[in-house]
Design brief:
alpha+beta, 4-stranded mixed beta sheet, 1 helix, 22% helix
Length: 69
């Protein structure tokens, strides 16, 4: 049991969004990258996961979120 003085850290956070459609994404704290095709979406998401050390999750509506676990 930790009774105080310890570090408090966020363990998971959305660090970026890669979207095909602007109307599918509302503003938020994470940067949003809009792309023209699914191929570009996959390429951008792949590069960002490597750069940000994150994982991509497909929301199924043309939007990928990149999450730091």
């Amino acid at each position: 049991m930790n009774t105080g003085g310890g570090d408090v850290r966020i363990q998971e956070a959305i660090v970026a969004v890669v979207a095909l459609r602007r109307e599918a994404v509302a503003g938020g704290a994470a940067p949003v990258f809009y792309v023209e095709s699914e191929e570009e979406q996959q390429r951008v998401a792949f590069l960002l996961t490597r750069i940000l050390n994150a994982f991509a999750h497909d929301l199924g509506n043309g939007t990928l979120i990149l999450v730091k676990h």
